[in-house]
Each structure stands twice: as structure tokens, then as C-alpha cells.
């Protein structure tokens, strides 16, 4: 429990670490802008709802029990969001659902929900910004399009590796460096 | 499935379709837990056991018509198996949080739920082997990356993620 609290406090003070803890859904759902936007909003909502319940549970639970309860609560809300996606946004569902499901055991979500509601909202918003920024870079440079609309001037200059798994790592590392460095004034 | 096919499933899960490098699952934990020797052993055992239980439970959930509950049920299974593993390993065990909050566990359970039991077992075994290799790679990588030539903004996590991207590119060539 102490380890998670320490990690949560460190992540709250360090944007780079906060983004690193959310790396899995951020890299997984950032191959195109539409999926990234949906993922960002879903994680923001999930973060907010989980923090609301966990803040209430913190008064009656302690130690590792808080983590276990937070995981179950997050899994419940993640299931709900996955069902909503399947029903109302079937186009992005195949790319987003699994990364949304694993958010139930995401370190950023659980550690920040323990830090309180305000911190969970802040983390959700930072995640939303980072995942959309990553997706814009990956889609424009990798697929030569923006939100599914082809960009004629990018024809012939596409770096298709950016839309694949290695591109996710590389672009997200750059986004982490920029956002983390901007916070520190570097 | 023949033995050859099962061996291919293990090899594929460990190298070519490595969940960490091709799907990002468990990447954060593999870097954070890279310096803990007992972590990979414990996680490997939890991956195999929880995948087997989740695979069996998936059939039950489908037959009951409550497939939509699988994320919650799988998360609960992972919590229980992780708690038992931590209890069994005693003082050498990694922390409960580091073990439970590892997306590779839920990732393997969700990707292998429609496989047969033996195939899912081989897939989990391959993933555990792949994860262990990556833990070792990241542990040595972090030592090398901890030098003053790294630009200030890239120090710490960004340079590690960038290095992982280069490793992923090498794996991608398969």
C-alpha cells in the first residue's frame, strides 16, 4: 500500500511519470485520432467515477484492500463503458475495447484515484491531452490523414512504422519528454 | 492441436507476438519491476494460473449468457491469484499492487479466452517467458541509460520508452 501511495504522490508531482503509468492505453489507442479521443474521454470518465467511489471506500478500508476494491470498481465501470462503446460507437470499439478493459488494472488510474478527486480529474485531463497529441502525430505522419480525412500534401511522405507498435513507443516517448519537460521548464 | 503447433504458439507468444512489445500490455510494470528478481517468477506463475482459470470461467459465463461480466470476473480472478501468490512466496514476494496492477495479466486472459485450454496454457507460458526476457532486457537497459549524455527532458522514463520502441522495431522484423 505504501508503495502505491508513494508512486501516486510521485506521479502527481511528475507529469512524465504520470504519463508513463498510463502508457498502455495511451500507446494502444493512439493509432488514429478518433480512437484516441474516445479512449481519452473514456479514461477521464473512468478516472472520475473510480475516484468518487474509492474516496468513499477509503474511510472503511485500509491497506491492500483499497487496491482490490479500486480494481473491482474500475472493472465494473470499464465493463459499462465497453458495453456503451459496442452499442453506440461500433467503429472504434474493436481498437479501443481491450485497452479500455485493461484500464481496470491501470496504475495511473488506481494510484491517482487514491490521491483524491481533484488529482484524478487532473490525471484524466493530462491523459486526454497526451493521447490525442500522440494520435495526431502518429496519424498525420504515419497514415497521411487526420481523423480519417486524407491529407494530399502528405502523400509520398508517410512513415507507416508510426502507425505500428514501435511507432507508438517512439511518439509517446517524445510526447512524454515534451509534456514532462514543459512542466519542469526544460 | 499437434505438439509442433503448440510449440509454435509458445514461440510466437514469447517473441513475434510478444504482448508487451506488440500490444504494449504490461509495459509499465515490466520497467518498474525490472530490478526485482522475484517479480518475473511470481508474475509468470500468476499469468499461467489466472489464464487457465479465466479460460475455464469464460465458458461458464458464455453458457450462462453473462459474457459482459468477463472483465469484472477476470479482474477478480487476478486479484485472488495474485493475493495467493504473494502469501505463498512470503518475504520474497513482490508487492501485491505491482503484481495485481499489471495489464499483461488481464491482457492475456482477454486475448486467450476463446482458445482451447491447452492452447491457452501454451500461450500463457509463452507470454510469461517473453515477459521474463523483457524484464531482464529492461533491467540491463536502465543501467546503460542512466548516463549524463541523455538530454535532460528524456532522462528517466522517456528514454526507456524510446529504447523499448527500438527493441519493438527489431521484434517487428519477425
Structure explained in plain terms:
The complex is a heterodimer of chains A (186) and B (174). With 186 residues, chain A is mostly helical. Chain A has helices spanning 2-13, 15-21, 23-28, 33-57, 64-88, 93-101, 107-115, 117-143, 165-184, and strands at residues 145-146, 149-150. Chain A has one domain. Chain A has a two-stranded antiparallel ribbon with strand order 1-2. The longest helix of chain A is centred in the C-terminal third of the chain and has 27 residues, at 117-143. The radius of gyration of chain A is 17 Å and the shape is globular. The model of chain A has no long low-confidence stretch (mean pLDDT 88). Chain B is mainly alpha-helical. Chain B has one domain. Chain B has helices spanning 3-16, 19-23, 27-32, 37-64, 70-89, 96-100, 103-111, 117-145, 157-172. In chain B, helix 4 packs antiparallel against helix 8. The mean pLDDT of chain B is 87. Chains A and B meet through helix 2, helix 3, helix 5 and helix 9 of A and helix 2, helix 3, helix 5, helix 6 and helix 7 of B.
